[in-house]
């Protein structure tokens, strides 16, 4: 340890080391980021302004949109900054901070998707008791519980990271500060850190995954006993949520568990791009394209906007 130089700055490998690609990548991801913010903010505004959307289901959807905006803002602005400066440098403190908020938003989103599964369970399997169970106080308490849990979980990882010393000058083979990649450049004993990642991946990840999909076993069994018209309506209320769930879990599992996940070549970084940058953009598109109430509310909002423009021009 005495002959090792302690690092205070880290190097990110980025998506590409070709200077000619930095500007095109900057423009592409800037467009994606603006579309992500616009799409999610639009959903939040529609839910806030349309009384027909002020139900527990859309309250959770609005919360998901807010998390997606935060999730995207943890990764993309830093990526855009690196494309612009082409330095790919980040301090240890900034790296750990990015890891904390990245874990906070991803855990919040996964737990919220689990809560939304139970919301669909109560709405379809226990419709007569739905308003008594999923009242506004319960919804707010659930969201507070999700946020508090998601704040505490990454704090454990951060406290362990602060005890490590970083002295290996190898660049992080990623375009953002990923926890497993950061541990690779530490010259301290990272056994406890790796053990915590393994335990939480098995128990916490497995628990959230189970709580997300188990309600749908009962939901599908209930739906199959319904009439054709009610079955179609029930499927439509679940399809958007299930599509988002499969998208989030599918891309995340492929990002971290595909055969070449440790190589992190340019091709292997593509799943990470989908996982960190494109998923927050896809979620509002899924809900807006597959949800009739969202589409109706959007049409009403556009009609009102056109009427206001017409009055303004006429005046």
From TrEMBL:
Domain annotation G-protein coupled receptors family 1 profile: ranges: 39-287
GO CC list: plasma membrane
Compartments where found: Cell membrane
Statement: the UniProt record of this protein carries the keyword Plastid: no
Sequence intervals crossing the membrane: 25-46, 58-79, 99-118, 139-162, 191-219, 240-258, 270-289
Sample GO molecular function, one term: G protein-coupled receptor activity
Keyword vocabulary terms for this entry: Cell membrane, G-protein coupled receptor, Membrane, Olfaction, Receptor, Sensory transduction, Transducer, Transmembrane, Transmembrane helix
Membrane-related topology note: Multi-pass membrane protein
Protein name per UniProt: Olfactory receptor
Organism of provenance: Hymenochirus boettgeri (Congo dwarf clawed frog)
């Amino acid at each position: 340890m005495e002959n090792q130089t302690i690092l205070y700055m880290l190097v990110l490998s980025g998506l590409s080391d070709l200077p000619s690609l930095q500007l095109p990548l900057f423009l592409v991801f800037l467009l994606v980021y603006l579309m992500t913010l616009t799409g999610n903010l639009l959903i939040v505004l529609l839910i806030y302004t349309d009384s027909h959307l002020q139900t527990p289901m859309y309250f959770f959807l609005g919360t998901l949109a807010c998390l997606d905006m935060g999730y995207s803002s943890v990764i993309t602005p830093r990526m855009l900054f690196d494309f612009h400066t082409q330095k790919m440098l980040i301090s240890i403190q900034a790296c750990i901070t990015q890891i904390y908020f990245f874990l906070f938003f991803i855990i919040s989103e996964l737990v919220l998707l689990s809560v939304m599964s139970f919301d669909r369970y109560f709405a379809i399997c226990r419709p007569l008791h739905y308003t008594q169970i999923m009242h506004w106080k319960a919804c707010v308490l659930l969201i507070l519980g999700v946020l508090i849990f998601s704040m505490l979980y990454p704090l454990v990882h951060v406290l362990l990271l602060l005890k490590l010393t970083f002295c290996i000058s190898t660049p992080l083979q990623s375009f953002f500060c990923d926890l497993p990649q950061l541990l690779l450049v530490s010259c301290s004993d990272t056994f406890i850190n790796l053990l915590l990642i393994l335990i939480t991946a098995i128990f916490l990840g497995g628990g959230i995954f189970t709580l997300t999909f188990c309600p749908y076993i009962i939901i599908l069994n209930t739906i199959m006993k319904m009439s054709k018209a009610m079955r179609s309506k029930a499927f439509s209320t679940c399809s958007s949520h299930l599509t988002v769930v499969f998208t989030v879990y599918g891309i995340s599992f492929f990002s971290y568990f595909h055969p070449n996940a440790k190589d992190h070549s340019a091709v292997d970084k593509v799943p990470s791009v989908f996982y960190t940058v494109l998923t927050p953009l896809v979620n509002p598109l899924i809900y807006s394209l597959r949800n009739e109430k969202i589409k109706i509310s959007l049409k009403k909002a556009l009609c009102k906007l056109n009427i206001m423009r017409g009055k303004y021009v006429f005046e």
